[in-house]
Amino acid sequence: MSTRIAVIDPDRERALLIVDGLKEAGENDIHVIGDDTGVARRLAEINPDIVLIDLENPSRDVMEQVAHASGAMERPVAMFVDRSDEGMIRSAIEAGVSAYVVDGLRKERIKPVLEAAIARFHSIARLRAELDATKAALAERKILDRAKGILMKAKGLSEEEAYGALRRAAMDQNRKISEIAQSIVTAAELLK
User: Fold this and answer.
1) What pLDDT score does 104 carry?
2) Which of 3.40.190.10, 1.10.10.10, 3.30.420.270, 3.40.30.10 would CATH assign to domain 131-191?
3) Domain ranges for the chain
4) Is residue 55 within 8 Å of residue 10, measured between CB atoms?
5) Which of 8, 70, 181, 191 lies at a CB distance of 3.0 to 4.6 Å from 147, suitable for a disulfide?
6) pLDDT single digits (tens) 157-191
């Protein structure tokens, strides 16, 4: 299966160098975007697996377009630049660029940089998934604690008894305990 790669480079010669390097690296479906106006629209049309950007001196506008359209949080983005500054690096990282390489592009560097960008992207995606799961578990825990508190106050139960009541209701109704807890919290808020 080939990888769909969008190459953003206004310099035709450099773009051809990249295309050659990508062809040597394996079977890829390569799309070159040579004009940095309408980048967002073109990326949406192509829907690439990977975005590779090669610019002499990228502007903040291009970075914003790439961040918005490439779904940097959804796919690896590798960026090759000839010149850079601290602000541009920060903008690239905030836009979700997975690999930021200063001092231009050489054909033999393309494959290892793309591999590094993909690995970093997957590592960050795993961290985001873990963070989302942790946030969801914490939110469920807060709801569960609130529901236990409501039951303890309303029925004069201990914390253990309130939790047992939630568990029994969940099993009886064949629902998750967090769903039962949310129902209790919602009902209590309606009755205030």
Assistant:
1) 62
2) 1.10.10.10
3) 3-105, 131-191
4) yes
5) 181
6) 999 999 999 999 999 999 999 999 999 999 999 98
